[in-house]
């Protein structure tokens, strides 16, 4: 029998935080070249249903899972040969098992992962093929622009300062706010700026679902004056600018009108674009109190943060080879200070094989280099930016992970580097370790105030900062605390990736055709 165990939770739309429901994916399972454990026939593997007498089953039953990009969702698949009607798996022949993550399946080419089954020493157990397909309309983004005519005059000394508020209807008849436009000052005939919104946030993918739009006159004290409202649906809005798509903003006997100037939709399939990750480490390991201290019984803060974030990111890199850099150190043999050196010591090839390779290179570098200030971020940001500048067609998206103690010596140059990098397909994650003040990191994050340099604003917000100390579990549960760290630090990556693709007019890759049983030969097709 094929049994799936997944550590995933169900989460709904939160009207306060504005978060969006998880993507639902459908997992399809096939196996090839299973062990033959039956004496007089082939094995009879099953996953809910039993497929008789084949070593190459394609299971019909699907598994629907909630997929969260920012979480590591572990899966285990067990395959059994069913020999009786007993529900006790111990009474059936075990054919093999495999462990993976949901992100590993989604991040594989065409979202199709093939792995060898294991679990029986000395035996080749065959192969399991896992395919993921996103369900519903959660790839759709709507881009809309509205205008209005002859709105009510609400200001005594002027006209009105109108803005729009969009709500989607709920099953209980209530409405949930999902978007506000900007305020257009001093006009009764406003033209609002175009905006983009996920269709699942607007109507949860139901094109006939009621959408309510309210129009207000903005007041500085927050007591905005109600001008009027209308209801529509995404299906109606998709008709665009036409006589059939003019809405009366009803409030009193006078007529005021609002209508869309344009409505367009794009379907996004973008996770396959996340193909490369760079990781950077810095600090001073001189004694047991050092953040880099190599405790034989426990990973230090740098290693824990690297492992927590890196294990999730690596699922979306096709070859699992990562350039790992250090900065702020004197290098052998001459003690030259470098702010951009390969952790593995190989200038020609700084790539490490997976997270284990990076951790090994990190520990080796602590034995060979003398970590030394000052700490300059700009060289490593520019280093990754050079990679990103060479691939701007949407086929790759770069993530730079910086793990640092919070001290930064080239703030002005780093801000300029980030402003320039905001034009490129890349994001920057900063994890601050230790007890230092992280005011500079917060400024780089740009959540409250968009980062700028030489009077030039960053095109996008590409930096996410979190302090490691906020995730240290006092009970010592490092697994749980590192899962929380990875979740929060990666939460903004999908939207940052989408914002780059949309700003460059890059359309998503077509969704690959679903895998069919005929794609691979079967010994006994059933």
UniProtKB/TrEMBL annotation:
One of its GO terms (cellular component) is plasma membrane. Pfam families: C2, Copine. Residues 278-497 form the VWFA domain. Residues 1-117, 124-247 form the C2 domain. Keywords: Calcium, Metal-binding, Repeat. It comes from the Eukaryota. Belongs to the copine family. This is Copine Va. The gene is CPNE5.
């Amino acid at each position: 029998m094929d049994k799936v165990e997944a550590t995933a939770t169900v989460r709904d739309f939160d009207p306060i935080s504005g978060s969006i429901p998880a993507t639902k994916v459908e997992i399809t399972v096939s196996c090839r070249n299973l062990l033959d454990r039956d004496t007089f026939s082939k094995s009879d593997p099953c996953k809910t249903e039993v497929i008789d007498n084949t070593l190459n089953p394609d299971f019909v039953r699907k598994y629907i899972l909630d997929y969260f990009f920012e979480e590591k969702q572990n899966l285990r698949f067990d395959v059994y040969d069913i020999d009786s009607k007993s529900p006790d798996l111990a009474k059936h022949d075990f054919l093999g098992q495999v462990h993976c993550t949901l992100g590993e399946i989604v991040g594989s080419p065409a979202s199709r992962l093939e792995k060898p089954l294991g679990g029986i020493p000395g035996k080749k157990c065959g192969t399991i093929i896992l395919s993921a397909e996103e369900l519903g309309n959660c790839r759709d983004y709507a881009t809309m622009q509205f205008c209005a005519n002859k709105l009510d005059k609400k200001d005594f000394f002027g006209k009105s300062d109108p803005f729009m508020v969009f709500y989607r209807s709920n099953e209980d008849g209530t409405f949930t706010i999902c978007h506000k436009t900007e305020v257009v000052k001093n006009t009764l005939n406003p033209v609002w700026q175009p905006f983009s919104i996920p269709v699942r946030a607007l109507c949860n993918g139901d094109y006939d679902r009621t959408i309510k739009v309210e129009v207000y006159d903005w007041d500085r004290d927050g007591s905005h004056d109600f001008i009027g409202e209308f209801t529509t649906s995404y299906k109606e809005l998709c008709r665009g600018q036409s006589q059939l798509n003019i809405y009366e903003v009803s409030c009193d006997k006078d007529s005021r009108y609002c209508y869309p100037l344009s409505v367009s939709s794009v379907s996004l399939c973008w996770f396959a674009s996340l193909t490369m990750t760079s990781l950077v480490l810095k600090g001073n390991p001189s004694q047991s109190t050092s953040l880099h201290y190599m405790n034989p019984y426990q990973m230090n803060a740098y290693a824990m943060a690297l492992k927590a974030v890196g294990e999730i990111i690596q699922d979306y890199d096709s070859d699992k080879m990562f350039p790992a850099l250090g900065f702020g150190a004197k290098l052998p043999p001459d003690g030259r200070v470098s702010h951009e050196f390969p952790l593995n010591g190989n200038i020609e090839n700084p790539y490490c094989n997976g997270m284990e390779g990076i951790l090994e290179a990190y520990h080796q570098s602590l034995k060979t280099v003398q970590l030394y200030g000052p700490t300059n971020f700009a060289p490593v940001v520019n280093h990754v930016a050079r990679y990103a500048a060479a691939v701007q067609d949407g086929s790759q998206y770069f993530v730079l992970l910086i793990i640092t103690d919070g001290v930064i010596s080239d703030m002005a140059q780093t801000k300029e580097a980030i402003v320039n990098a905001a034009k490129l397909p890349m994001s920057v994650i900063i994890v601050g370790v230790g007890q230092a003040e992280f005011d500079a990191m917060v400024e780089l994050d740009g959540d409250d105030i968009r980062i700028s340099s030489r009077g030039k604003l960053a095109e996008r917000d590409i930096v996410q900062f979190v302090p490691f100390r906020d995730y240290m579990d006092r009970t010592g549960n490092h697994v749980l605390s590192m899962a929380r760290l990875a979740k929060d630090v990666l939460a903004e990556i999908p939207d940052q990736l989408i914002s780059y693709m949309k700003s460059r007019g890059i359309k998503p890759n077509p969704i690959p055709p679903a895998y069919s049983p005929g794609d691979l030969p079967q010994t006994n097709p059933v």
